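Data card: per-record layout.
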Amino acid sequence: MKILKKLLWFVAAACVLSGCADDRMIYKPGSGSGNGGNGGGGEQPSGPGDYSKLTAANHPRIIMSEEDVAAIKAKLAAGSDANLKKLHECIMAYADKALTAKDLVYEVTGKRLLSVSTEAANRIISCSYAYRLTGEDKYLEKAEKDMQTVCAFKDWNSATHFLDGAEMAHGVGIGYDWLYGRLSDATKKSAEKAIRDYAFYCALNGKWNLNFYTSATNWNQVCNGGLVVAALAVYETCQDDARSIIDKAIESNASVMPEMYNPDGNYPEGYGYWGYGTAFECIMLAAMESCTGTDNGLSAVDGFKKTGKWILFMEGMNKMAFNYCDCAPSSIAFPPLWYLAHKFNDQSLLYGELMKLNDGRYTSYDSPKYFPMAIVYASKFDLNSIAPPEEKVWSGKGINPVVLVHGDWTFTDTDKFLGIKAGRANYSHGHMDVGSFVYDAWGTRWSADLGLQSYGTVENINLPGYTGGFGSYDQGAFRWAVFRYNNYNHSTITVNEMLTRLEGRHDRHDGHPFVRMRKRHADRNARKRHGPRGEGHRQGQIQQGGRRTVDDGHASHTDRRGQPDRIAGRVEKTLPQGDQPEQRQGHPQDLVHRRRIVRREQRGLLRSRLRGQGDLRPDGHLHRDPLPERINRKR
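The structure for this 635-residue chain is written out next.
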């Protein structure tokens, strides 16, 4: 317990006082912004795969081959693996439910057709699996009917919200491939046309709301994953377009994978979006491997190899997870872990998934479209001998660094769980939760995160006085007025009732480190303990007469709307005449000898005298702490 307390205070302090992430990309939903990653840490695509087997005579071919079906059937018949049987039963239960479901209807909610696309994929893929495992025509007929319905829609809403079209392409593509030999010619032609017109055309001609090809977020993975599955399914009917889709997906995904997973695997958009993005990442890789013999080196990214362990550590007691960013607190089934466990030969990644299979979390999961991929890899394991991880503490760097601690991996009252987040807020699905933590002990979550706000309730609100709406990540955006998104709601430090500053980071200047100070700490904190805290890069020159003026900018203080705070003052550091700053050879501004620090504000004069020499070390810390002294003086 003492170790946990010390770790909590140490990391929380580091999170709050430091901008712990690189400022490489600021993603704003709907803008398609982002630099697409800058590589590093993983092998780039190793070359094209073998497309010669993508012919009309070679279906089904995506992820679940006929050999895989035979292996699953054999294990189920042997009755030797209760866990595999439960996973199979989850898929069959959804397929049976789909048999009596109403016809799908083109219905846009807000700007999204996504709920319809997701339901279509769930039904088509589950029923396609059920038909292949049982041979019962009722599943074939239902899957074909749903395919006919969605392919007759006026579009798949790709131009307005491309995720919708990508999910639809995924579902129709799997149904087309897995049922190819039994579908009518009319259904196949309809599916081919819909995939070309509603998905490929929009992707190849930039008919979208967001350029997912340059977005280092789940959009890149979901959109590319759905498109690649569809392209591999209908490849022989439109080779040029299909090959262009696959090649663009490989190129763009390779450029953003390091951004999302390196160096340690912690996904910057959080727990829930890891499940969404990584599921489609694994589907895309598995589809390429099964059809062309290679994933083109995409799985070789260092952080991707480690991401399964991170997500395992993210789950605490009482079926709850560390839900920073736009994520709900409930822990859910994670089908991509079956692929990752097989790909990287680490069965311990399945430790939590087996518990979920047995406590109902797979049964209640709302995306069974991923389960057939999971069972293909589950059939390759002995699920009766999965041990928990040996590690108890996990830490990772990256855009949103985290530290995660587990007690004994029993997930009972004797176990304890601690999760602490650093990083930044101005990233896709970000909250002002830097320095926040959750803690579970004795069966209770003592420090919690409320999670996301329903997007539909806030995304269309535009109020005066803000620099942007809910989708904006500007300092003065309406997003930060939503209680669940600002620092007032999170288990972190709030200084003087002000919003967290967004630009916090470590940086280097001319090859030498400098400190981006958070001015709300630097100006308001009399003790002025100069650690690397975040924004407000000190700029200035040594002027004649020994005065060194440091201009942090008058807008560094903000009120709750992100507007300039009138209390903000100008910081001046003065030196007596003749007491010039000492300088290191070659580093004229690395060391400043300060006798006093004076700050002028509307609320009075604060004078802090230093004990002896103030040595600003390269790591940004003063050699000696100042002794603050409050002088009440009328202005």
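Known properties of this structure: The chain is about 35% helix and 10% strand. The longest helix spans residues 239-261.

See the next section for split statistics.
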